[in-house]
Design brief:
single chain, alpha/beta, Rossmann fold
């Protein structure tokens, strides 16, 4: 049986050939950064940044917390100051207008090597409850910023130059229903 892949698997695959020393993780909340073990113990990054507007789980000293609106990151970080920016479970909580601004005016400006995204393709709902509830996550964890404001498709992300894991989704190799992984390599390896 083939292993099902998750967000951390894709981050590792995409970044394996790249020299990554700095990571910026967006929307980390109480979960922390995706692939934290990989960054701290396998790749041994020099510096990581954790950004969330609501809460940030305590992390080892390699990570600097940035409790702020991700749309304002250029006020505290310089252009091309991080090797990888990973925004997992983040874009769906922005309006389409703000998400586009984040991708092209913030993420791709801050990042030297790769922008990695994990985006909802549908509003998640409580198991057993039918219907779409954009406030489901807000109600679940009391995070006022967790409202679903947009959903994403592989076609949309690919049109903007991102590669996606759509083939793995169609072949049932991706472990997370209702999500799509996307990445854009900004420099040659």
């Amino acid at each position: 049986m083939r292993k099902q892949l998750d967000m951390a698997d894709y981050i590792q695959r995409v970044c394996a050939p790249l020299d990554i020393k700095t990571v910026l993780a967006i929307g980390v909340g109480n979960k922390g950064p995706v692939a934290q073990h990989y960054w701290e113990n396998v790749r041994k990054i020099d510096r990581g940044y954790l950004c969330d507007i609501w809460t940030i789980k305590p992390a080892p000293s390699v990570w600097i917390p940035l409790k702020m609106d991700a749309l304002k990151l250029l006020e505290v970080l310089k252009p091309k100051s991080v090797d990888i920016l990973q925004a997992c479970g983040f874009l769906e909580h922005l309006t389409l207008k703000d998400a586009i601004k984040f991708l092209f005016d913030v993420a791709e400006v801050l990042t030297r090597k790769v922008v990695f995204l994990s985006c909802a393709t549908t509003c998640h709902s409580h198991e057993g409850i039918t219907g779409v509830d954009p406030l489901y996550k807000t109600k679940l964890d009391k995070n006022p910023y967790h409202e679903y404001k947009s959903i994403w498709s592989h076609q949309q992300l690919e049109a903007w130059g991102y590669k996606t894991n759509i083939k793995d989704i169609l072949n049932c190799r991706f472990a997370l229903n209702g999500e799509i992984e996307a990445w854009k390599i900004l420099v040659d390896k």
